[in-house]
Amino acid sequence: MWEVALTDRRPTDAASALSIADAQALFSPETVWLNTASYGLPPRPAWEALQAAADEWRHGRCGFDGWDRSVGAARATWARLHGVAAADVAVGAQVSPFTGLVGTSLRAGARVLSAEEDFTSLLFPLLAQEARGVEVRLVPLEALAAAVDGSTDLVAVSAVQSADGRLADLDAISSAARHHGARTFIDATQAAGWLPLDAGRFDYVACGGYKWLLGPRGTAFFYVAPERQEELTPHLAGWYAGEDPMSVLYGGPLRLAADARRFDVSPVWLSWVGLAPALSVLERVGIAAVHAHDLGLANAFRAGLGLPPGDSAIVSPELGEDAGERLRRAGVMAAGRGGRLRFSFHLSTREADVGRALAALA
To answer: H or E stretch including 17?
Structure first.
């Protein structure tokens, strides 16, 4: 069965729901893993599916059809989690090509507004358009919504900042963009999987699958609002962007999918085999429950450091110069970003992990 048929799958029922405790039993960290903002740990169903597919590949037991069904399953689950139709979601391997696709659609002279602190995989594909006359204006994140005006063509921002976990005011940004007729592009890589997000409020939403979505690297999603799909030229189109990919393997003319699948990039199959069951775990737990869990642990960590509560699962405090070494000795995994240590709390994190991190820093 070709993967597109799986986009009609319905959500899991209440009988298959997972509690936080049940979900945590699916993870096997050997460290205190507070580094999901770099990459997420796989739950057991994802790991086992990936190993099984790798063994099939090694021994040549199958064609790629079974692996490809995982693409359709993952696409459908991501769409449900973000309140949009699977037909409006494209798949690929990284976010930056999709950002570049939106960038190349801009006319010469178009004006883009972004946050000056944002991740370069969002900024670079847009800044690269300056050579052909696109103007990119960078302002502080907190000033982004107020900076939108009648000359703005596109507002592009990460929903959650990679360096320090700050949340963009998506309500204000969306409202300002609608008022002035600007398009919106949201990079949800540091948000999807823990922060409830209605993708349908925006023109474009892209995210990688290997962080908070708990899949392997080499997976990405790209939501394109139905009314925007004709505005983008599918510059990345290959065989997988066809209406029926197996029937468009050779020769012209151009015959692409009628929906957002025309923006698909041929998938890294084994990575999608791992991502599909990881997304299923998140769906069974529910993003609202994951959000409450992640934020609760992050705020417990903040409280232990004497900081006020926040609204992000990422915490980037100012710590002493030897903090990184103390954490390493204690087996606590965090990341250095922007001159600070960055801690990220997700489904695999337990209350005891927060205690061990605080003890190492005490």
So the answer is: none
CA dihedral 54, 58, 59, 60 (to 10 degrees): 80
Give the three-class secondary structure for 173. Answer: helix
Rounded to the nearest 10 degrees, how much is the dihedral formed by the CA atoms of 349, 351, 356, 362? 120
> DSSP character for 3?
G
Report which secondary-structure segment, H or E, holds 206.
strand 204-208
Beta-bridge partner residues of 226: none
pTM value surpassing 0.85? yes
CA distance 72 to 64: 13
| Angle, helices 65-81/44-59, rounded to nearest 10 degrees | 160
pLDDT confidence bin for 6, thresholds 50/70/90: very low
Residue 257 burial (10 A CB sphere; 0-12, 13-18, 19+): buried
CA 185 from chain center: how many Å?
13
CB 156 within 8 A of CB 188: no
Percent of the chain with pLDDT over 90: 90
